[in-house]
Every structure is written in structure tokens, then in C-alpha cells.
Amino acid sequence: MKKALTTTALVLLAGLGLSPAAQAEVRIGASVSATGPAAFLGDPEAKTLEMLVEELNAAGGINGEEIKLVLYDDGGDPNKARTFATRLVEDDEVVAIIGGTTTGTSMSILSVTEDAEIPFISLAGAIDIIDPVKPFTFKTPHTDRMACQKIFEDMKKQGYTKVGMISGTDGFGASMQAQCKSVVGDYGIEIVADETYDPKDADMTAQLTKIKGAEGVQAVLNPGFGQGPSIVTRNYKQLAIDLPLYQSHGVASDGFIELAGADAAEGVRLPGTALLVAGLLADDDAQKPVVTTYKTAYEGKFKAPVSTFGGYAHDAFLILTDSLKRAGSAEPAAIRDAIESTSGLAGTTGSYTFSPEDHLGLDLSAFRMLEIKDGKWALVE
User: What top-level branch of life does the organism fall under (predicted)?
Assistant: First the structure.
């Protein structure tokens, strides 16, 4: 809990007994789940932040000042996240915080940053993080409500009117389940089966068997993230359920295909980001230069596929550094005001336009409807 992960430069300076304060710098903080049950999300986030800080400093920093990143690993524990957020504000004296890999850790962090009036950019999906709007809290992923809308939009196009739902009981799954129920009627769709599973469950065949037997069910939606959706997908194949399966943006990564198995995942649809289909983007797509640059840099440095979740961290860093450049000051209130004036900033997740009334900055057009074909991501036309 006391271990802080910092940029290589900061570690070397400390090892030499030198004070980094001797050089003009801007200190930013982060708390992500680099280990623990959400490590598949937090690990690429941590790596992305460290890589981007290194790149930015090599290019001269921001307005002549070097960026110092103080990065903690909360292991997905909301209590640790709250402790680290307090440490970042009070001891490390950062001007802004990026992180909150999960909804739970994000809610803990924002409880600290709002009191301290420090900008916080969350990397989690729940709508509750930014709705209602909180003065100093922003986020980069689409909301779970938007994911529901994108999925139901596609289901409506396919003519589905009766669907089954199997949701995780974790914070993400429960939130998305509630959001889907709140908007499903707008699309003329009825939920005819509604099952849940614990994130620690190793088999969901009982719930899926009930859904399979529900009268008139035409498709199935699984709000969830982590290993649960992969198990659902494998069980789905084992039960030979001949119905379309939709997953959430919470599993939009190559890791999901690997865990579920390409055969079982074949045909699964979900809303995702441009990052997963970088090579399929049109040359005039505003996101293509950003997506391809990040993908090339990350995969070249870490010899691993880029992920949507690392992309969330990329966009948070982009938003923060762009705002620092425009703010003309490293004062938290000035940074917050600059974030709120961001307009048309292309990231890996979408193009962000914030305002005092909108701390997400994305609309449904930022989502791409994707389908798994032959073990790879494909755009749904």
C-alpha cells in the first residue's frame, strides 16, 4: 500500500539523493488498479501514463516545465484508492489526478478531490461518476447508459423485440443493468429474462439455461466486465444457444477474445472504440492519426496489443496536458476551467467537447459497433 510507482526519472533522482524540485516541474498524480482483479484494465493504464510522460518530457515538457508523475497502485481497493488520493493531494501536492480504474475506486477518489478542489479525470464507466455534474470530476470512457443505447440501437435495427439479460453484480455490472432497464423501452424492446452472477462465479450455465428457455427471447445482453463475461461466452457456446450475444464495452479488448476463446466469441457484438479497429478506419477519420500513433508507440514499447483501457488513460493524459498548455497556469481551478473549454479534441475513445454542464464530452457517435470475426474485431456496417 505504501509502494508508489513513479516515472523512471523520478526514481533515479531519488536514488542519487537529488531533489526533483530543483527543476521547474508540474506534478500530476494517478491511482490505478495495476494489480488485483482489475489488473487487465489498470496495468495498460499505468504503462500508458508512464510512457506518455516519458515521451512528453523528452519533447520538452509543457511550456518548458517537466511533468512529474506520482503513480500509485490501489489494487482495485476503494479504501486504498481513497488513501492514495489523500496522499497525492496532501503529501505529493499534485495539481490533478488521473485514475479510478473501476467505478468503486473512482467514487472514492472523487470524494477526496472534490473536497480538495483538484481536477480528477476518471477511467471508469459508470454514469454516476459525472451525473450529476461535479465541479472537478471528469471522465474519458463512454457511460454505461450510452453502451446500453448503442446496443439497443443495433438490436432494434436487427428487429429484436425480446431479449434476455445476464449481469454481473459488481459495481459496473449492476450500474449497467440499471441503466439498460431505464432506456430499453425507448427502443421498443422488452427484457423477458433477467439473471445475475457474482464476479467470482466460475460457471453461469444455470442462469443461461433459464434465459435460453424464456419465451420469445431473440438475443442476449451481458452487462459486465472482468472474467465473468468470458465465462458467460464459453458457457453460451457449450449450451449451443443459437441466439445473438451482446457484451458491454467493459470487455472491449483482445484479452476478452483470448479468455473466451475465438471459437466461442465468434459473432459476439459490443460497442467499442476506434482503437480496436485502427487499421479499418477511413483515412479522413479524425481519430485515425491519434489512434495509430498511440497503438504504434505502445505496442512497440511493451510488445503487447494495445487495449481500450490503456486508451482511456491516453485520453485522460491528453485532456489534462492540453488543458495545462491552454490554462497558462498550473493552478487546479485554472486547469478545471481549461478542461471545461476543451472542444473537438480527438482521442482514442472519441472527440471530446466539454462544458460546465457536460463533464464527459462524448456522444454516441464516439462508439463503434463491433463484431468478433475469425478471432478479430470488425466494424458492423
Answer: Bacteria
